Amino acid sequence: MMPVRFLGIDGGGSSTRAFILGPHGATLEERHGGPSNVIVVGEERADETVSSLLGIEEQFDAIVAGIAGADRPWVRDFWQTRLSRHAQTVWVTGDYRIAWAALTDGEPGLVAIFGTGSVFYAESPKHQIRLGGYGWKVGDVGSGIMLGQAAVNKVLGALEGWGAETALKDPVLAWADAHDKVTLLNHIYHPEVDWRSVSDLAAAVFRAADQGDSAAAEIIETQAALIERYFFALQQTADLPEGAPVGLAGGLAPFWLPHLEQRNMGSLCVVSREPGIGAARLAARYFYERQEGVSH
């Protein structure tokens, strides 16, 4: 009899990572592939990525795939069908949920993911609640886009004379390859400019705030207050038990941690475990619980 193997997949718009765990949670193998977000690259390209990661007849006892866009039924159905070739038991979920699993091992808890966008997720035995994740056109609390957009607004105010001078001026103008208000706005509204690139300014906002720049500090304070409200809402509506873990994930998590700790929001941590490992551990948990008659 072959030893049990569990597969966790972390699939996004730029890369895909797969982790294979053995029966006792040991990581047996890690694999890397190209993009798998079918919304961005299409079904054919996503299928090619999976084929590059998994052997044609490779089988697993259970698979959990955390996929960007999996809240859309057609995305979830595509992945459910594609991965069912490799396991009889497949769960497809949002990428935010495997970040939660990486923090909690499937127990009650809350995770906030900060990158270009942001999303907040909490789960308990009775509740699964997601906040945010609206996308770049709307903007997400504490996200790189929201921070970068606020930085641009502060710099425009400084350039027009109605706002305070700010250390953000140099990084914003450099981002746009501009030297004044007109060239800055020309860059922003150029048809070939991807507005999501404004998230590249997020680190500069944190640096300026830490160095005492009042405009940058105001941006961080405004966003931190909104993050706190999201956390409070999730903790209340998800009915999380006292002491449930609260973690930050994503590229901006280390930047946010000290600023949120100052707000007395309880014990926070940066999630160190890979989301794909969280997915694989969740696959193992669900597999054994199903054998005991617990459904998911």
From TrEMBL:
Transmembrane segments: none annotated. Residues 7-253 form the ATPase BadF/BadG/BcrA/BcrD type domain. Pfam families: BcrAD_BadFG. It comes from the Bacteria. This is ATPase.
